Amino acid sequence: MSIETSHKSSLDANLVNAVVASTMHVMSTIASTEVQCKEVKAQTDYKPCGDISAIINITGHNGEGMLALSFPVQLASIIVSRLIGITPDKLSVEDRCDGVGELVNMISGNTKSKLSEQNNTLYTLSLPTIIQGPKHHVSTRPKNNPYLLMLFEAEGQTFNLQVSFKTF
Amino acid sequence: MMTFLIADDAGVMRKVISRYLMEMGAIETQIFQAENGREAVTMASKEAYSLIFMDWNMPVLLGIDAVSEIRAGGIKTPILMVTTEGEKANVIRAIQAGASNYLTKPFTKEDFEAKVTQLVGPITAPIEDAKLRVDLAEGKIRPV
Lengths: 168, 144
What we know:
The complex is a heterodimer. Chain A has one domain (13-167): Chemotaxis protein chec (3-Layer(aba) Sandwich). The model of chain A is unreliable at 1-10 (pLDDT under 50). Chain A contains three helices and seven strands. By secondary structure, chain A is of the alpha+beta class. In chain A, strands 1, 2, 3, 4, 5, 6 and 7 form a seven-stranded antiparallel β-sheet that branches. The longest helix of chain A has 27 residues, at 93-119. By secondary structure, chain B is α/β, with parallel strands linked by helices. Chain B has one domain (4-137): Response regulator (Rossmann fold, 3-Layer(aba) Sandwich). In chain B, 46% of the residues lie in helices and 15% in strands. Chain B contains six helices and five strands; from the N terminus they run E-H-E-H-E-H-E-H-E-H-H. In chain B, strands 2-1-3-4-5 form a five-stranded parallel β-sheet, sandwiched between helices. Chain B is elongated, with a radius of gyration of 16 Å. Chain B starts with a strand and ends in a 7-residue tail after the last helix. Chains A and B meet through helix 1, helix 2 and helix 3 of A and helix 1 and helix 4 of B.
């Protein structure tokens, strides 16, 4: 899926396409889960929520930002249990958190590889931070930073990925 | 007996790699785990593993620095970097530090098996376990 962005406050289309492609690639390759990107919102009052989220920072010579991946708990359990190769009922809370962290790590890593090749710049990732709690909202948007919300669908459920990235 | 050291701060990734190794023929007692680069260096200096799997981004000591320290200690064990750091510049950096090969996350089971086989050949289980497997397959013994 190719995303064209035109809003002043939105991110570069190359970045958006890299994130969407990376998300689909990671989910299908390591967790045997097909996902679809349903919507990309550049400017919205809608505050996405999830039961379990993983956040990662990305920094480079020409910019910095963050990615936040949020799942409903049932969907996180399905995807992470596939990753490990067990049934969802045998998945521990610790492994579920760890798995969501690893997913955002892989999506971010895959994205930054694409960006590095496009921009000829190396980016660095932080270790993921995990948040859990029913229907929480992750605020990833420092003032004036370009921001995008991406809604994905898998197994009939929706999960979201927020991206905030500012170039210097 | 072949032994494997998996260095990754994510317990889930250690489980994924362990599962793939066991599907290739390894048993649980052949697999050892480290949660950061420092642990990996310490363990690698005490035991001669057949293969070390090394993540890049780990707390305490980065995988790339752990590889350098392991090589500086004169340890020649093959090291497979298993990481999200897929940029060519980082692959070159890892090879220069002493990594034997490189596998970018996410990977398929087939990608994993190809890299492992390339580095250590087919995985063999300990003799006693191999004999048990044959006896089980031939019906000489039954599982409890």
